[in-house]
C-alpha cells in the first residue's frame, strides 16, 4: 500500500540537505523528467469550499504527475526530494507537491535548469506567480482570491473546473456583505454595552 511506503506525507521532510542538490542531477535524467512532466504532468490551483475558517474558499497548489505503476512517480519524488506518492485502486500512481515552500525551493529551480516547453511552460510561469501570492498571504483575503482567479484562467487551456469563477466570486462577495453586517452589529452591541455600563454607574452615583 502507498500509505505504508516511505514516500508518504511524513517523508516530505526527509529531503536532501545539500545546497547543490540540483547540480547533482545528471543532465540526461533531468531532461527526461522535464519531458515526462511535459507529457504527463500538470500545474493546478484548486479552489475548494472552506466551511471551518473565515473565508468561504481555500486556495491550494498542486504540481502532480500521474502514471500507471509506482516506478516513475517514485523516481520523481527522489529527484525533487519533496512531495508524496499515492496510488488508486486502478493502478494509477500520483507524484504530487503541494507545499508552497517546497515548490519554491525545489520545483521551480529544477525547471529553471531543465525547462519545459509550450503550454506547460506557460502554466508553470503563472503557477509560480500564484505561489508567490500564497507565500505572501494574499490568498487569505477575498480580493487576493479574486486576483488568483483571474491569473489562473488561462492555465491548462482554461479547462473545465468543479466550481466556476462566477460561483466563487459570488460567494466571496456574499461573504463580504455578511461580514460587513456582522461587524456593524458587533460594533453597535459594544457601544450599547458601554452606554449601559456608564448609565448604570451614573445611576448608582
What are its keywords?
alpha+beta, disordered N terminus, 52% helix, two-stranded antiparallel sheet, 205 residues, four-stranded antiparallel beta sheet, globular
Give the helix proportion (percent range): 40-55%
Mean pLDDT: 80
End-to-end span in angstroms?
75 Å
Instruction: Report the count of strand segments.
Output: 6
Q: What structural category characterises the helix and strand content?
A: alpha+beta
Give the amount of beta strand, in percent. Answer: 5-15%
Detail the poorly predicted runs: 1-18
Would you give an account of this structure?
The protein is an alpha+beta fold and 205 residues long. It is built from six helices and six strands; from the N terminus they run αββββαββαααα. The strands form two sheets. It has a four-stranded antiparallel sheet. It has a two-stranded antiparallel sheet with strand order 2-3. β5 and β6 form a beta hairpin. α3 runs antiparallel to α4 and α4 packs antiparallel against α5. It is globular. The N terminus is likely disordered.
Summary of the model, kept short:
The protein is of the alpha+beta class and 205 residues long. It is 52% helix and 13% strand.
Question: Layout of helices and strands, plus pairs?
Answer:
Layout: H1 27-40, E1 41-44, E2 47-49, E3 57-59, E4 62-68, H2 71-80, E5 84-87, E6 92-97, H3 100-113, H4 118-135, H5 142-152, H6 165-204
Antiparallel strand pairs: 1-4, 2-3, 4-6, 5-6
Helix pairs in contact: 3-4, 4-5
Amino acid at each position: 500500500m502507498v500509505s505504508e511506503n516511505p514516500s508518504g506525507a511524513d517523508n516530505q521532510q526527509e529531503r536532501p540537505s545539500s545546497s547543490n542538490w540540483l547540480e547533482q542531477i545528471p543532465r540526461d535524467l533531468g531532461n527526461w523528467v522535464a519531458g515526462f512532466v511535459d507529457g504527463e504532468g500538470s500545474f493546478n490551483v484548486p479552489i475548494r469550499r472552506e466551511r471551518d475558517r473565515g473565508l468561504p474558499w481555500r486556495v491550494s497548489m498542486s504540481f502532480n504527475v500521474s502514471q500507471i505503476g509506482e516506478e516513475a512517480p517514485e523516481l520523481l519524488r527522489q529527484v525533487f526530494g519533496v512531495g508524496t506518492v499515492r496510488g488508486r485502486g486502478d493502478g494509477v500512481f500520483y507524484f504530487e507537491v503541494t507545499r508552497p515552500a517546497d515548490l519554491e525551493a525545489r520545483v521551480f529551480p529544477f525547471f529553471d535548469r531543465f525547462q519545459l516547453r509550450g503550454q506547460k511552460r506557460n502554466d508553470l510561469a503563472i503557477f509560480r506567480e500564484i505561489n508567490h501570492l500564497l507565500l505572501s498571504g494574499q490568498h487569505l483575503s477575498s480580493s487576493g482570491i479574486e486576483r488568483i482567479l483571474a491569473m489562473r484562467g488561462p492555465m491548462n487551456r482554461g479547462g473545465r473546473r468543479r466550481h466556476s469563477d462566477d460561483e466563487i466570486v459570488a460567494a466571496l462577495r456574499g461573504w463580504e456583505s455578511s461580514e460587513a453586517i456582522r461587524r456593524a452589529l458587533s460594533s453597535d452591541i459594544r457601544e450599547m454595552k458601554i452606554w449601559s455600563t456608564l448609565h448604570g454607574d451614573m445611576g448608582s452615583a
